Amino acid sequence: MTRASLSAAPKTVRVDLGDRSYDILIGPGLIATAAGEIAGRLKGRRMAVITDEHVAPLYLEPLMASLKEKGIEAVSLVLPAGEKTKSFEHLIPVCEAILGARIERNDAVIALGGGVIGDLTGFAAGIARRGSRFIQIPTSLLAQVDSSVGGKTGINSPHGKNLIGVFHQPDLVLADTDVLDTLSPREFRAGYAEVAKYGLIDKPDFFAWLEKNWQAVFAGGEARIEAIAISCQAKADVVAADERENGRRALLNLGHTFGHALEAATQYDGRRLVHGEGVAIGMVLAHQFSARMNLASPDDATRVETHLKAVGLPTRMNDIPGTLPPAEKLMDAIAQDKKVKGGKLTFILTRGIGQSFVADDVPANEVLRFLEEKHPG
Amino acid sequence: MTRASLSAAPKTVRVDLGDRSYDILIGPGLIATAAGEIAGRLKGRRMAVITDEHVAPLYLEPLMASLKEKGIEAVSLVLPAGEKTKSFEHLIPVCEAILGARIERNDAVIALGGGVIGDLTGFAAGIARRGSRFIQIPTSLLAQVDSSVGGKTGINSPHGKNLIGVFHQPDLVLADTDVLDTLSPREFRAGYAEVAKYGLIDKPDFFAWLEKNWQAVFAGGEARIEAIAISCQAKADVVAADERENGRRALLNLGHTFGHALEAATQYDGRRLVHGEGVAIGMVLAHQFSARMNLASPDDATRVETHLKAVGLPTRMNDIPGTLPPAEKLMDAIAQDKKVKGGKLTFILTRGIGQSFVADDVPANEVLRFLEEKHPG
């Protein structure tokens, strides 16, 4: 498929942020043609490519060859793979590599990898020379539909995940859909949870389309490209309306409050639960809780659960292997994530499929009772 | 004087940056009354105070006492003094201290110190939770009139000074003019070079006023407050017109291209040359070079030199103790600071006192010949 699809023009999603606007190109074969897209948009002829040891053997060479062919002088830095790389320990050599490569005003830093590489590299680009140009080449579905849109960058701290970083928008995102064929089914599914999320936030027709067409999305080809483009557009629209997360952007956290609590409860052990799986369970819980609060029909919760289960995602807390801490401990994790004010929490709830909203007066004790019911013991 | 002056209302300079606008208060006794000013403007009741071992013994206790009295819970972190503190090594514990203090949306990070503490702390505040509120209490004249206005923050890299950082505007600046009485005369003079700079950029009347009143400015009292307020206003005006340094803001670099080259040539050894002294010599050189290029009268260069010499600042390269490298080496340092394009440099030149402008076509070989003349051997 790669060869034939090289001729197809990629889909373009524009992220509209005034003088920080940028394009997301989505399509097959984009890594091999990356330099052409870059050279057509940026004047600089020096780049620093940051990637990890999993991605490098697959895609670094074709990317570097493409850059060289267009007369772009590039250096590369290969980091260890995994969440631990999002730390000051690795941020420092990335910054020094960028400065050492003399990346200047019209040059750029390129992140080639998943969310970890994107977040870390974007942060380094955001602080090197108080802001350097930045190109994302996301290599996971999650990174293509989520972290590569919106400009959030950062690293983890002993005090929590993503607590240190900046908002730094990329100048260009190249989402090569061919790379998704090398993802494990589990990793693809985890990214798919975020795709489904956009339907559940405010696109009921997209969710219905996914219910019908998810197999085609998983198989690759046009349906997959379409699903990624709609997801990027959905996130781009929210981000354009609320770049710094004061209001509407919070909707992107649908399923994430419960999801983060479950990730914390499993000590971020990816063997037990990865982020997208936590979000899948969290979205089901958010719909069930909304039904319990008489905001939405229980049928909607059932519909969400049925679809996510069909694609192979976990949908219940006891789908997670191993023992979970008791409900009160999960509640502590939620309270740490979201501040509790006068016994009330801010939560993303829903009035039905595609009708999510920010609820800022959710009684903490109702959440606890709900968790106790869903996870007795 | 402190006691009597406590009753005087501080002068206020407003830095106009849309929703990032803030006030600079200038006057005596502001550290002791800091908490009142803070509590009147910010809702948060948690603060983290970052300072250094030189400043802490003088001002940390009164500041902490003032905060406590207003019901503000504050932690403090005391760092080593000196330029070496502007490094990742010290940035990390500052970030962790901020996160550990649970500084949230309405709380703030306070920098109590000179330029090093301000730049480092501002950077940490800019990246902790992707941007935390930030209050500057600058304790040197240089910091009061220069680094505390404009939002540039950062640390040094082995590749150069200030190469890693963010633009992060403070929410409030408290310039307590009493603290200047504890500066060494040399440190005060170095800060004064930047005060004079504002006159030379575009305020000929201010420069003339300084020529007449500099002794009163050095002595303290109203003239000093006035000079600081005019300086802050001057910088605020430039920054408001050009927050991200694309055009007009470059004027603030008057004297800095030569100055930086001299700082580099003396290996940033503060015993030989401190920043403001480099700027003083640099401003004289910029006026002399402008005269040589027939842009300005040589009388203006003489007037600048006479004034800076009168206050006790160095004005010539051979005022610097020790041996300087030859002119070509200085030229290399200039070329590294500013890019040379087709043999041309961008430089801040002048048509006379208070008539500076950005010249982007200065022949590099003319600069070299000028340096050879001024510094033979």
What is the N-to-C succession of helices and strands of chain A? HEEHEHEHEHEHEEEHHHHHHHEEH
- CATH topology description of the largest domain in chain A: Rossmann fold
| Domain module tally of chain A | 2
Report the oligomer.
homodimer
CATH architecture of the largest domain in chain A: 3-Layer(aba) Sandwich
Care to count the β-strands of chain A? 11
Which CATH class of the largest domain in chain A is shown? Alpha Beta
Structural class of chain A: alpha/beta
Please give the share of residues in helix of chain A: 40-55%
**Spatial strand order of the main sheet of chain A:** 1-2-9-6-5-3-4
Largest sheet of chain A: 7 strands, mixed
Roughly what is the average pLDDT of chain A, rounded to an integer? 93
Counting H and I runs of at least 4 residues, what is the number of helices of chain A? 14
Query: Per DSSP, what share of the residues of chain A sits in E-state strands of 2 or more residues?
Result: 15-25%
Shape of chain A: globular
Largest interface: A-B, 26 and 26 residues
CA-atom Rg of chain A in angstroms: 20 Å
Which residues of chain A sit in consecutive blocks of at least 5 with pLDDT less than 50? 1-7
End-to-end span of chain A in angstroms?
50 Å
